[in-house]
Amino acid sequence: MQLAVAPPLLPMLAKRVSALPAGDGWIFEPKWDGFRTLIFRDGEELLLQSRDQKPLNRYFPELVAPLLAGLPQKCVLDGEIVVAQDGGLDFDALQLRVHPAASRVQLLSRELPASVVFFDLLCEGTHDLLGEPFRKRRARLEELLRTAKPPLVITPSTTDRAQAADWFERFEGAGLDGVMAKAEDGGYQPNKRVMFKVKHDRDCDCVVAGFRWHKTGDKDSVGSLLLGLYDEQAALQHVGVCASFTLAKRRELSELLAPYRKNALAEHPWRSWATNDGAEGGEQRMPGGKSRWSQGKDLSWEPLRPELVVEVAYDHMQSGRFRHTAQFRRFRSDKAAQDCNYAQLEVVAPQELSEIFHE
Description:
Elements: E1 13-17, E2 26-30, E3 35-42, E4 45-50, H1 64-70, E5 74-82, E6 84-85, E7 88-89, H2 91-96, H3 102-111, E8 115-124, E9 127-128, H4 134-144, E10 152-154, H5 161-170, E11 179-183, E12 193-198, E13 202-213, E14 222-230, E15 236-243, H6 247-261, H7 271-274, E16 302-314, E17 317-318, E18 321-322, E19 326-331
Parallel strand pairs: 1-12, 8-10, 15-19
Antiparallel strand pairs: 2-11, 3-4, 3-5, 5-8, 6-7, 8-9, 11-12, 13-14, 13-16, 14-15, 16-19, 17-18
C-alpha cells in the first residue's frame, strides 16, 4: 500500500481513570465494546488491521464492499468492529466470527453481520493527519462520512460534560462500557496511552472454587483465582477470574489456600470438569475449557472446597460472566459462600441504539 500512513501501525491507547477529566478542551465519546480496528484503503486494496497488527479481512467479508463504496480512495481510519442486535452490542457473537472455517464465517456474516464504528481519521489522500489536532481530524471525519449508512457508522461525540455523564449511565445496558475522553488539541500517538477511559466499577462477592498456579515459579505462587456465583437453581457457575497480584501476595495466597485443597474434589460442583480435557464445544463455563482463544495457554487448575468468599471489583457482565478480569479487593470471612449469587449484581436496562445505528 502506498499511503502517507502505512501499515502496520499500532493504535493510540487509553489510560483508565475513575471520573471524567476536569477542565475544558475535551471531546467525549461512548466507549465501544468490540474489536479495535485500523482500516487502510489504497484504491482497491483494503486492510482491516487488529490491535495486535493482524489482518481481520477474512473474518468480516460483509464489510469489504461497504468500505470500498463508502471510504475515500486513499485513507486510514481508526474504529471498532461491533455486532449490534436487539438494541445492544453482542460481544459473544463478535467473538464467534474469529473462526478457522471459512464456511462458518460466511454463514455468521449473513446471520449476524458486523458494523464498523469510526472515531478517528489518520490519513486522507496524500495527507498524514497524525500530527493534526483531534478536533480537526474529527471534523474532517464527520465531513467524509456525512452520507454514511450502516454498516458504516460514526460514533457520537460531545464537548458537553453533562451529556457525557448521561451516556455513561444510559448506554451501559446496550454494551457500551464507558466513556472516552480525548484532548481537542491532541495529535494521534500510536501505542501511547494519551486518551482517557472512564469505566464502571462495581463490587461483587464470589466463591473461590479453584485457582491456577502462576506461570513462573515451582507451584509456590498463585496466578489467578477461579470465581463462581450460584444461579437460581443453586448451581455454581464459573464467572471468571481475578489476578494481578504482587509476587508477595501470590506466595501468601498459596499458603492461605492450602487448607481448602484438602479433599476438594470429593463434593466439588465442578468435579466432572477437573478430569475433563476441556475440548472445544463442551461446557461453556468450564474453567479449564480450551478454545481458539487459548491456544498455547496452560489452562490446568486446582480445585478448592467452595467455602472461601472474596470481594472483587468488576466493570461489566457479559452473558453471565465478567467481561474482563476482576480485581481482588479482600476476603470476606463474614459471608457464607451460599450467599454469593447473581441476585447481588446490578442489572442495567438496555438503551436502544437506533439513534446511532439508524436505518
